[in-house]
Amino acid sequence: MTLRGGLARAARGLRDMGGRVARRGVRVTTGPGAPAVQPGAAAGQQVRIIGQLGARCVIDVAPPGPKATITVTIGGAKPLDDLRLTIGRIDRGTVSVLFTASDAAVEIGRSPMLNARLDLGTKARVEIGDGTTAGQIFVNCARGSVRIGRDCMASRDVMVMAATHHGIVDLSGAAPVPVSESPEIVVGDHVWLGFRSTVVGSCQIGHGAVLGAGAVAAGRYDPATTIVGNPARVVRRNVSWSRVPDVLDASIKGFLAEHPELLGGSAEPLSRFNTSP
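Request: output the structure for the sequence above.
Response:
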């Protein structure tokens, strides 16, 4: 069988898979021959792959929890090449990943609850760390990168945009000049992205920060700060957050143990606060 024939056969198989729900985790690879599909160990779960994979693709989805649904869509009339997708165990939620062009890579870590939609164009690079949760987050990335750290929490209607879908033209000189852009977004560990907040362009949000509801972040923000407004600005320093009100839960205690510099270089001040059992 030729390479072209093998990929065509693989694409037909993936289209067939798209019509039903896989009951286990899924691993799909494409190389010199037809892709191999190796289901994971757990039964009774929901993973769906729709579309046509081209050459040098790897789709690796761990078996999700019984209340999780994962859909991977490969868009376009032709098979897409050089796609990389890794998703750890998602206990509950809905994750939708759409590839619209070749050459894109995504890594999503384990999560107890994740509702996310990712739209990915060419040269997109996206990473979401272990333990990060989301009520509903939308990530749009093309010719750019998004890195969201571990143990972050996104509320509902959160938008993260690192995409160059259209060109910017500089008219300040004697002749118009196209401006090359490659937006890079970095959200640190244990960051809270509030309701309807937006992160755009080249932006860096430090570890432990809180981005307020409706804020539009497009700059560089220090760790352990509260950030609000449009454009977003820092309004409070030396502050972070806990998933459980009025106590230091395991999430914040683990984060501060890894970043003692936020407490003057020592974790001892933790004893001054009430802590969860």
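Residues 212 and 228 are 5 Å apart (CA to CA).
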